[in-house]
Amino acid sequence: MRRITRIATVGIASAALALSATACGGKKSSDSTASSSESAGSSKSAAIAYDIGGRGDQSFNDAAFAGLEKAEKDLKVKGAEAEPTEGESEADKVQRLTELARKGNNPVIGVGFAYAPAIKKVAEKFPKTTFGLIDDTSVTAPNIANLVFNEEQGSYLAGVAAAKASKTGTVGFIGGVEVPLIKKFEAGFTQGVKDTNPNAKVLSAYLTQPPDFSGFAKPDLGKATAKGQLDSGADVIYSAAGLAGSGAIEATANAGKWAIGVDSDQYNQAGLSKYKDKILTSVTKDVPDAVYNLIKSVEDGKPQTGEIRYGLDKNGVGLADSNPAYKSMAEITAAVEKAKADIIAKKITVKTAP
C-alpha cells in the first residue's frame, strides 16, 4: 500500500487569517476558477477529512480510512488524509477542504455531518470536484454525494440482542453528542429492547450537548458514564460515541458485563483487543464501501451524486457476529435474524427519534 499523505491542519487563528486574506484580495476571484481546473485535472487521488477523534478512534473514522485504503490497493489511487483540530471553527473545516481540493484530490470526502456547512461553501468553488458528505443530507449540489445510513435499523437489532442478553433487565445507551443523528441510534436501540422485553429499562445518557461536540473524543467521560450506568444495574451497554465509546467499552468489559460497539466491528479492532471477549456485537455501518464506491465512481467517470442510502436491505447497516460467544447464543441470533427479516419486509418500522 502506498504511504498515505498526511495533511497538517491549521489552528483556528491561522485558518481564519488565511480566509480573511483571500476575502480581502490576497487572491483574485479568477484564482477560484483556476483551482477548480486544477482539481479536475487529477483523477488518481482521493482525500478524506476526518471527524472529531480522528483516525485511530477504532470506530467511525477508522471505517472511512478502511474505504480509502481499499481504493489505494484496488484502484491504485493516491490517498490523502486530514485530521481535525480540537475546538476548531467552521473556518478550519473550510480551509481543510479547500486545501484538499486545491491539491487535486477528487473526490474529497468529509467524514461526518459537522462538515455540511463547509462542504456547501467549498463545493461551490470547485464545481468539477466531487465532494462526499457522510451522515448528512441537508446540503445538496450537483457535485455532492450524500452518503447516509439507516442507523436506527442496525440499532434496533442491537436492542434485540441487548434485551436477550441482559440478566438484570436494565441496559444502557451512551451517545456522544445529543444531535438528531445520534438520536436515531438511541431510538432504534430503545425500540428493539422494548419490542423484545416490554419490561426492560433503558438508561440513556449523552456526553455533551451541541455546539460542544467534544463528547465524541472523550474516552474518560465515556468510561465514567458507563460506570454510572453499571452502578444503576445495566449489564449491557451500547455506545454511539466515537472515540469516547472506547472508554465505555473498557469500563463495561472490566466490570464483566456486555458492551455493544458501533460503526466498525469493534471486536476486531486492535486497539480494543484487551476487551474483545466482552464486546458482544457491534452495529456496523458500511462506511468503508460507501467511501470506496464514491472513489470508484469518480475513477469510472460517473461520479455519484445526491443521496446514496445504505440500509439493512443492502447490508449497509447490520450487526456483527465476530464474537464466538454471540454466535453460540442461539436464542439471541434467532431473535436478531427474525427482526432483521421483519424490518426488510417492512413488518417492523423502526423509529428515527426516541
Automatic annotation (TrEMBL):
Record flagged with keyword Membrane: yes
Membrane-topology annotation of the record: Lipid-anchor
Keyword terms: Cell membrane, Lipoprotein, Membrane, Signal
InterPro entries linked to this entry: BMP_lipoprotein, Peripla_BP_I, PnrA-like
Signal peptide span: 1-23
Domain ABC transporter substrate-binding protein PnrA-like stretches: 51-349
The keyword Acetylation is assigned to this record: no
Major subcellular site: membrane
Subcellular localization(s) per the UniProt record: Cell membrane
Protein name (record): BMP family ABC transporter substrate-binding protein
Organism: Streptomyces flavotricini
